[in-house]
Amino acid sequence: MKMDMNVFHDLGLEEVNSGVYDGEWARPSGKMIDVKSPIDGSYIARVSMATESDYERIISRAVEEFKKWRMIPAPKRGIIIKEIGDELRKEKKNLGKIVTMEVGKTASEGEGEIQEMIDVSDLALGLSRQLYGLTIASERPYHRMYEQWIPLGPVAVISSFNFPASVWSWNAFIAAVDGDVVIWKPSSKAALTAVAVMRVIERVLKRNNAPNIFFLMVSPGHDGGEWIANDKRIPLVSFTGSVAVGKKISENVAKRLGKTILELGGNNGAIVSDKSDINIALRGVVFGALATAGQRCTTTRRVIVQENIYDDFLERLKNAYSTIKVGDPRDKGVLVGPLIDEDAVKNYERAIETAIKQGGKLVFGGRRIKISGCENGHYVMPAIIEAKPDMAIVSEETFAPILYVMKYKNIEEAIEIHNSVPQGLSSSIFTNDLREEEAFLSAYGSDCGLANVNTSTAGAEIGGAFGGEKDTGGGRESGSDAWKYYMRRQTVTKNWGKTLPLAQDVVFDF
Description:
Elements: H1 5-11, E1 16-17, E2 20-21, E3 32-36, E4 43-48, H2 52-69, H3 74-90, H4 92-103, H5 107-127, E5 135-136, E6 143-151, E7 154-158, H6 166-178, E8 181-185, H7 191-207, E9 214-217, H8 221-229, E10 236-240, H9 243-255, E11 259-263, E12 268-272, H10 278-290, E13 300-306, H11 310-323, H12 342-357, E14 361-364, E15 368-369, E16 379-380, E17 383-386, E18 402-408, H13 411-418, E19 423-424, E20 426-430, H14 434-440, E21 450-453, E22 465-466, E23 469-470, E24 477-478, E25 487-495
Helix pairs in contact: 1-4, 3-5, 3-6, 3-7, 4-5, 4-7, 5-6
């Protein structure tokens, strides 16, 4: 596949690109990654990986740049981030093409990835004037108490391939208006997207003569993750990825009493009631299960259907799947592109084989397919499997388009089935019954961080805090008051009187 050279030129990319940025692009010195497209397996470019000495230079520079950035008033920091958003808007199509080529998203989803970054920059601008503390009533006369929020320092963001730019921005843009600087370790499966994004951001920082607030370090997952997790100079690590790796990073950061934001596995369920609008439910489930070829953290992996409509809904679901075009994501009408690599295809095949052995019934798809012109791509036919809630495979997250379909009798049983898996990211119920809706949102309802009514498990908006519970890790990013994760809280007490009264009426005279 020959990349559009105009795109390369506009974004400042080359055939061999440095994956190390600390205000300047380091000369490639480490091992190289060949960037190959999952669309057809073809070579796109190369990116150099960071060495440990590169990392040490980055973190040392980040510590110094933080001292400058934290002293710039937050509203001024917000203007810089907004200008970055404006620059991203100019390059939206070009960056979207890079996302499509590198991770296989459709053109619409590739550009949507960049639009999400733009939206987060707008959110960050508004937030920069709303970093509020509390005023607290003191029990002592002539005393005033309040809270203030202070930047943490250099924070690290370790991102995944499936959202190679936007999830980084959820963390980075919010942390930046808070006054932090950010070290980014992207997935090595999406290194070129990270380089391209940083090339665009670099223009704004240099144009404004701003401190270098964003740093890039492409590295093998294990090495870079270890350097970051064990470094006391990094007070916060945000990690998006698997449960197993997240636990290891959390353990290492906790040993040095650092903080983590963890966005780990999702095994998201949708309940479809017999009191739902069946057409809305069908569209919501199909989008949730198939967007990004089933490689979203919020992908719908389980659908729990009321037994009275089970057969009808399953038939509609199979018919809908049969109309979905799988293929080259650059082609018009294609909604499902390739999986990221050959390992992902093997995991897909292994999960289906396991599900059948455990008693599941494959009723649609479930095989590798070849796409004309993309013979070396990683394509599969989305699978629908009738399953039982107690099948072990149903409790596992397979990052592929596999949908397990189960039935239930009443809403209490549906919620019990829904909550029976270890993960707790996103959830949905499709119903027009107020009692069912409220049950789903009650204390015994969905145990996930995200709960949706009559809409998909996938497609979260940036204004709400994003994250999940249980094995998903408990982290929160982006909207609401997630900004507080990137700052430290300080309670201030001021005595403006002429005596020294003590709290709790303690007497200490001398």
